[in-house]
Amino acid sequence: MSMNEKYSDIIHLPHPVSEKHPRMPMLDRAAQFSPFAALTGYEEAIYETGRLTEEKTELGEEEKAILDRKQRLLLEKLYERPALTVTFFVPDEKKSGGRYITKTGNLKKIDLIQQWMLLTDGTKISLEDVKNIESPLFCDGF
Questions:
Q1: What whole-number distance in Å separates Cα of residue 64 and Cα of residue 62?
Q2: Average confidence score pLDDT of the chain
Q3: Residue 88: beta bridge partners?
Q4: Pairs from 22-26 (Cβ < 8 Å, separation ≥ 24)
Q5: N or C of the chain: less Cβ packing under 10 Å?
Q6: Is 46 helix (H, G, I), strand (E, B) or coil?
Q7: What are 84-140's pLDDT values in tens digits?
Q8: Which DSSP symbol is given to 38?
Q9: Are 108 and 120 in contact (CB under 8 A)?
Q10: For residue range 24-78, what is the model confidence (pLDDT) as tens digits?
Q11: In the chain, what is the greatest distance between 2 CA atoms, to the nearest angstrom?
Q12: Residue 4: CB partners within 8 Å, gap ≥ 6?
């Protein structure tokens, strides 16, 4: 028995139309078959867990002394708004660790008491987070 023979008594009848309920619009009918995200935020949580961060490296005494000398020279030449490139640590806002950023600009201010430097573009950098400073002012002795 073929499928057409099995339903031969109803196959040619008109499509039933309800008198109580209006037909569902095609857009709503399609929506009921769209993918369902049962775990809202799950994909973001998986991404966040897998996202890698770096640990902040502690500088040795010699590296700290070199940075200190560089900062003092920059402070002496502050009126020139010296060009420099700073590599510094930025803590991650969501998890432990962070990442190192290298920024090039001109120095506007250094506050050795409160331990920060300000670039002319408004970037404020904690001196405790600075890993390295390069500038044309520094001779090969650094």
A1: 5
A2: 86
A3: 101, 130
A4: none
A5: N
A6: helix
A7: 999 999 988 887 888 999 999 999 999 989 999 999 999 999 999 999 999 998 876
A8: S
A9: yes
A10: 888 777 776 766 666 677 777 777 676 777 888 999 999 999 999 999 999 999 9
A11: 100
A12: 11
3-state per-residue secondary structure call for 54-108: ECCCCCCHHHHHHHHHHHHHHHHCHHHCCEEEEEEEEECCCCCCEEEEEEEEEEE
Kindly tell me the burial class for residue 118, based on how many C-beta atoms sit within 10 Å of its own C-beta (0-12, 13-18, 19 or more): middle
In the numeric block, which tokens belong to residue 57? 């490296």
Per the structure block, which two tokens stand in for 137? 């002012």
Give the contacts of 106 (CB within 8 A, at least 6 positions apart): 81, 82, 83, 84, 119, 120
Distance CA 7, CA 31 (A): 30
Let me know the angle formed at the C-alpha of 13 by 9 and 24, rounded to the nearest 5 degrees: 130
